[in-house]
Design goal:
This protein is mainly β. The protein has one domain (62-466): Neuraminidase. It is 1% helix and 37% strand. It has 1 helix and 30 strands. The strands form 6 sheets. Strands 1, 2, 3, 18, 20, 21, 22 and 23 form an 8-stranded antiparallel β-sheet that branches. A hairpin with a 6-residue loop joins β25 and β26 (409-413). The longest helix is centred in the middle third of the chain and has 4 residues, at 209-212. It starts with a strand and ends in a 5-residue tail after the last strand.
Length: 471
Amino acid sequence: MSEITTGTSTGSTPGSGFPTRRRMLARTGALGVSIAFAGNLSELFAGTAAAHAPGHGGYGPLVPDPDGLLDLPEGFRYRVLSREGDPLRSGEGPVPSHHDGMCAFPGRGGRVHLVRNHENRATASLGVPTVEGLTYDPAGKGGCTALTLGPRGEVLSERVAIAGTAVNCAGGPTPWGTWLTCEETEDKAGTAGYAKDHGFVFEVDPADPRRSGAVPLTAMGRFQHEAVAVDPRRGVVYETEDAFQKPFGLFYRFLPEKPLGGPGSLRAGGRLQAMRVPGVPDLSSIQETGARFDGVEWVDVPDPQARRTPIRLQDFGPGGITHAQKLEGCYWGGRSVYFVSSFARSAEGSAADHHGQIWRYEPERRRLTLVIVFGPDTDVRLPGESPDNICLAPSGGLMVCEDGNGAQHVFGVTRRGEVYAMARNRHNIGTPEEPEWGEFAGVTFSPDGRTMYVNCYSPGTTFAVTGPWHR
């Protein structure tokens, strides 16, 4: 049987500097919006470089941007690197829309390679231009673009990295320096005009996309992918599924035939498995931080290609399988993989409601622990709900892209549990009567930690934010 331990995490006591249950953490300036979460944040940084950096209480209140694009704390500044509709510097066509997941990779001579997803469906007006040798399905409007930045942050090139895919939402880097871009769809050939099946992971070489081409990694499964994280010691790839309807998505692991084999090695195939937490059919039913489940099981997926039945609907035998709503961000830290459930709503079929969870899985112990629970906010119509893309910050904390209602923020979370607003989107894509702001996505840092890159999903814009990060 699985061991279930509820209550706060060990060492999380009042006055220790770490949050306990339902601790109200911060107010974001004049908005008067509180964010609440429970758990011990130190778990999120175990074994990472950021764990050795001091926490801080933020950089001060946000200063309204006179240009109406991006509000930042005093001392910080931004540059717009790329906007949808502008010409790609390669001359291949316009910059595509719907900027989403992104990652920064080191290049030679102080250069930085940025790989950026475009979450375009077949109806998108600004799709990724098709390029010979880099296109999977000419009917697909999604894909990735790649920017190369010089030592001073200047854009040296911007080009198509992969085209003809669909709904490229998130992904993750590999230990050998490539990007795994994920299709958040399971549309088959003949649907929405597609000529090929979709719902796959593709590998993208940020320095030279033609070396990676447009080859689906079919053994990694065909489902509504969100993000991936790779165990740098064993080469196991963990994958989240953001399914829109009940039954909700699963948490997967892929056991490659050639673990840590370098660029292109994932094409050799492997085994896809789904996580089963005995006695827990829906992760949303777990509400207490510190809840721990030992003896997590991994069950082979009967049909990874989902030829007739979506994977989450397949028969996993006695005991079934464990589902969760809105499984999104995923990253590796120390000896564990962390993954985010952005929210759960019983009205939509979940076992219980929550405003965001972060789970930790320890492969060596086969142990799953609920380490952070977000919300509820003081007013769920305002910021502070639905964490989405997440990354470790060089200041010793997290940066979290908000995907909720109202004005949209990038929130920082320190190792001491303080929450602060790092950026606020001023893009109004609605009307003065009914304002609407595009969400943030793809937050990532340059290899030297001096620049934060982040996307505005709509209108698609990529920002580079510099300033006193180590203040």
